[in-house]
UniProtKB/TrEMBL annotation:
Region called Disordered, residue ranges: 410-429
Coiled-coil parts of chain: none
Ranges annotated as biased composition (Low complexity): 413-422
Name listed for the protein in its UniProt record: DUF1501 domain-containing protein
A Pfam family of this chain: DUF1501
Length: 450
């Protein structure tokens, strides 16, 4: 079982969130859907891969993507700013944190991009609320809402390998995948496996007392076998995050396996002793960089058809606080990597002067996060625009228009819908509803429910 890193903060909201996930045995959570994208690259069909990485806690984007051209950044950050002489070169006046050398190489190859100032439609500075909105894909918190990736599966065509009603969740069942589409659970090999002879009595107990649990467990074993067939073996000498990326790569390249995945990483809430160049934050970035390099290596055969999106629930304040850290903010950069990604900087920079910041502290978003996701789903998976605006991200056509140009043009795309094809209908509240762990936790513990 993995041991979580000590967290240099005392944010009650985030600690409650971590405790809830910790009880579910989560340090690195990975889910993947079994969709083979109808998209061609280099004359191959149905080979698109998509990995969504969520950095839980609110990652300090201004220390990852450094706006070196903006003197107000250095004035606000003081000793917590990343000095230009230590940072790595990118383009457009931006620099990169010195721990991200593998990412710099991907950027130089045109296989990495940043959208520098992105935000959620809900700006409450709350881990619970913002993670919920990131994952439900709606304009705000809605108790009982389903996850947008689950809704994405509902609009993709059936008949693909492992597509029909199959979603894979590793170690957890995050909101982003919850909904009407069934979910498979798979635990990585961080935990010992029972022999088949030992499993049979357990299955007999399940069959007598909880047939549904038995069915879930058998499906988990099936996916476990899939990962084994892909050659995955846990390496205890590597950080758990790196092993999580290795597992994602194995599953994404297994014949008949998943083609879309979501991976979550805890530990990005840095209120005190952030350690921008040396310390907790720098170590987290170094591990993430190593994981991205491993992913690039392990997905070499399908890299040209791969897109990875790295995001967080909110950014951090531009001014440093009084405890050598940063507090919950709003605007944040979104990172994209992969052979299918159009490299560079996409989007505007709002500025770091006090008058340009929200309330004098927070980076002002220039784009809605849903716009970025819609651009990736449209360009990479060929999802129909109407489905994106009404089903995957309901009521988002005006508030979160699709950001085009994030994905390299392909040689073939999903066929356009027939002229008489029915127009997608907006989802009803009943279709959006699904019990959420966050809501249950709040109700059980008397926490405010919006």
């Amino acid at each position: 079982m993995t041991r979580p890193l000590p967290l240099p903060h005392d944010c009650a909201d985030h600690l409650l969130s971590l405790t809830r996930r910790g009880l579910m045995g989560l340090s690195v959570g990975l889910f993947s859907s079994a969709f083979l994208g109808e998209r061609a690259r280099a004359n191959t069909l149905s080979e698109a891969r998509l990995l969504i990485v969520i950095l839980r806690g609110g990652m300090d984007g201004a220390s990852l993507l450094v706006p070196a051209f903006d003197p107000a950044y250095y004035a606000a950050r003081g000793a917590l700013a990343v000095p230009p002489e230590a940072a790595l070169a990118l383009s457009g006046g931006f620099l990169l944190h010195p721990a991200m050398r593998d990412l710099q190489a991907l950027y130089a190859a045109g296989e990495a991009a940043f959208v520098p100032a992105v935000g959620l439609p809900l700006q409450t500075h709350s881990h619970f609320e913002c993670q919920e909105v990131l994952e439900n894909g709606l304009a705000g918190s809605r108790p009982g809402a389903s996850g947008w990736v689950n809704r994405l599966l509902s609009v993709l065509p059936g008949g693909e390998p492992l597509r029909d009603g199959r979603v894979l969740a590793i170690n957890s069942n995050p909101l982003i995948v919850r909904g009407s589409e069934p979910v498979l659970d798979w635990s990585s090999t961080w935990f010992p496996r029972l022999r088949p002879t030992a499993l049979e009595p357990l299955h007999q107990i399940y069959a007598a007392r909880d047939p549904e649990l038995l069915a879930i467990h058998r499906l988990g074993l099936e996916v476990d076998a899939m990962a084994g067939a892909g050659g995955y073996q846990n390496d205890p000498t590597l950080p758990p995050v790196v092993n999580g990326f290795r597992g994602a790569a194995r599953l994404l390249t297994t014949a008949g396996g998943p083609r879309v995945a979501v991976l979550t990483i805890d530990g990005w809430d840095t209120h005190a002793d952030q350690g921008v160049l040396e310390g907790h934050f720098a170590e987290r970035l170094s591990t993430l960089d190593r994981a991205l390099g491993v992913l690039r290596h392990d997905l070499a055969g399908v890299w040209d058809s791969t897109a990875v999106v790295v995001t967080t629930e909110f950014g951090r304040t531009i001014p440093a606080n009084g405890t050598r850290g940063t507090d919950h903010g709003v605007g944040m950069p979104v990172l994209l990597v992969g052979g299918a990604v159009r490299g560079g900087i996409h989007g505007d920079w709002p500025g770091c002067r006090p008058a340009e910041l929200l309330d004098g502290y927070d980076l002002r978003p220039t784009l809605d996060l849903r716009s970025v996701f819609k651009g990736v789903l449209s360009g990479h998976l060929g999802v129909d625009q109407a489905q994106l605006d009404t089903v995957v991200f309901p009521d988002s056509a005006q508030t979160a228009p699709t950001l085009h140009g994030l994905i390299v043009e392909t040689t073939s795309r999903r066929p356009a819908p027939a002229a008489d094809a029915p127009v997608p209908r907006p989802l009803t509240d009943a279709q959006l509803s699904v019990p959420t762990p966050i809501l249950a936790y709040r109700q059980q513990n008397g926490i405010f429910v919006p």
